[in-house]
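Quick question, first post here. What does this chain look like in 3D?
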Amino acid sequence: MPSEVRAMPTDLLRSLLPLVEDDLDDVEAGPDGLSAQVSTRYGEVVLRVEHDEEAESLRVGVAVPPPAGAGVSFLIFCLSLDARYWDVKVGLDDAGFLLLHSDLAAPESEDSADLASLLVERSDAVIDLLDDDLVGFMLEHELGTPSQTLRWLERAPELDDAEDEDADDE
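> Answer (accepted):
Ran it through. Tokens below.
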């Protein structure tokens, strides 16, 4: 029986793993790159980091099912995110999942500590887009199941007193 050939994480990803494991909970190296289980307002998601050696780039992203019944307003919303988030984009992956991702240059000459810091920063931005913007849109347009809606509302960020006063003034 022939053995299955499995890809291994690149040297760059292996070198980044110890530098990001304090900031990305449960991050581990696998055959397709790094992955981390992340508990978000949206729900449990897998944050993936892939390395394209030829392009000298990293892609960090989360794939989630697109909201059923969202329609044209959702497309317009996704396009507007490109203006709000310079470093995070929204697209579809090969399986039709909504892909919230950020690409960053990863030349061989890049300092690993700087790249790791940028990787964590972009990971946070991807999760912020998911939890703040996507969940907000889905709540506003009633695109979640009852249990999703309950989770999203229970995990809503609390406004501090200064934000409450600003909202009251408007």
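The longest strand covers residues 44-52.
The chain has five helices and six strands.
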